[in-house]
Amino acid sequence: MILGGGFGGLFAARALDRAPVRVTLIDRHNYHLFQPLLYQVATASLSPADVASPIRWVLRRQKNVEVLLAEARAVDPVRRHVVLDPENVIPFDYLLLATGAAHSYFGHDDWERRAPGLKTLDDGLKMRQQILLAFEAAERAASVDDQRRLLTFVIVGGGPTGVELAGALAEIARQSLRHDFRRIRPESAHIVLLEGSPHLLGAFPEPLREAARHSLERLGVEVRTDAQVVGVDGEGVLWRAASAEPSNAPRRIAAETILWAAGVAASPLARSIGVPLDRAGRIAAEPTLAVPGHPTIFVAGDICAFAENGKPLPGVAQVAMQQGAHAARNIVRAIRQQALESFHYRDYGIMATIGRGSAVGDIFGLRITGYFAWLFWIFLHIFWLIGFRNRIAVMFEWAWAYITFQRRVRLITAEHAWQRSTDVPSDRRPD
User: Fold this and answer.
1) What is the pLDDT of residues 197-235, one digit of tens each?
2) Which contiguous run of DSSP H or E holds residue 352?
3) CA separation for the pair 145, 357 (Å, rounded)
4) Which of 139, 164, 171, 256 is catalytic?
5) Which CATH code of 3.50.50.60, 2.60.120.620, 3.40.50.720, 3.30.230.80 fits the domain covering 2-103+265-335?
6) Secondary structure letter of residue 189 according to DSSP
7) Alpha carbon distance 391, 383 (integer Å)
8) What is the pTM of this model?
9) Are 2-103+265-335 and 109-262 equal in CATH topology?
C-alpha cells in the first residue's frame, strides 16, 4: 500500500511496475500535483490543469496498481492496516508513507485564516483570488490609506517558494496589470518579503543568495532578513528583528494580503504509528528508509527525516522521487528475503527563479545566475512535468507571457467574491 500520490508515492508506484505485487495507492485528491509550479497558479501564469494530472491516468498502463480516492485517518502498525474511517480499514503487507507536509505556523494556527499557505491546488486558487481581489478592492477604495494598505503584499518566508512568489507578484503589478486600471497604479504596489534568518534561500551558496536578493530588489521588492513575524491580524503583520531582545517593540506593516511560505509540518498521519518524531513531525527513518521497529513500513518525501553525512536532506521533489523509488525497490527485496540497501541521495542541484529572465541555480557544483539560469530552469521544469499535453500547454503559456508581458489566467472564479472586499463608496455607486 502507498499512501500519497505526490512525487514519493508516484515514483514508488512506477518502480513497482512488473514486480510480483498488488499495489493500492490512496490519496485524498484524484490528481498528482507538480508542486514546484504551484506558485504560478497562484500568480495567474498557469491554470490548475497545467500543473496537475489525474493519478488514474498517470498509472493507467500499470495493471498491478489500484487507485483509491480516500483520506487515511490512521495507521495501525501492529494489525497492519490503514484506517479510512471506523467502518473501513484496509490491510497491507508492506506500507509506504508518502503523505507529504502541510503548512506550519509555529504554534499560531490562528494566523492561517489571514495568511494562507501554498500546498494544494485549492491553496493556489485561493491565493490567486486573494491577490487579484486586492487590486480590485484598491480600485474602489475610498481613501489613500485604504488604497495603500490594499496594495501592500507581505510574503512571509524567504525560501524558494517565497522568493518565487515575490518575483512573480512584482511582475503582475509592474507589467501584467499596469494598464488595466483607471484609479490606481498597480506598479506602485508595495511587496515586502520577510525572512527570519539572516539570508534568503538558506540552502543556496552565499553568492546565489546575494544574486537572488539583488534580482528581487531590482523588481522593486522590499527584502527584510532577520525579520521574525510575531503577529498576524486583520490590520497586517507584526515583526521584530530576530536578533533583538524579546522586549523590543514589534513593528507593523499594514497590509491586506499576507502570503505564508515560512514553514512546513509533516502529515499528522505520522503520529499514529507511535514512533519518535522530530520537531517538524517527521519520522526519523533507518538508512533503508524503513520505520524503526516496523520493518514492513517505509517512508519517503516530506514525512521522512533523513540525514546524509550529518546534513538533513532538503524537502524538495528530487528527494521524494529518489526515496519513493528506493523504498519500492527495498520492499521487493524484502519480499524476496534479500538484504535491504541503504538510501543514498544523488544531488542534482537546486534552483529558484526570480521573475522574468532571472534565476539562480547550483547545478552539479556549477553556480549559474541570470538569463541562462532562467532558461535552464524552464527546460528542467518542462522536462519533469507529467504528460505531453501539460508540457505543450506550459510552453505555450510561458512563451505568450514572455512575448506579451501578460498572464492569461487572471480569473476570479468565486461567486460574489467582490462583496468580501471593501465597500464601494457612496459617491461611486451607480444610480
Assistant:
1) 999 998 899 999 999 999 999 999 999 999 999 999 989
2) strand 350-353
3) 34
4) 164
5) 3.50.50.60
6) -
7) 8
8) 0.89
9) yes
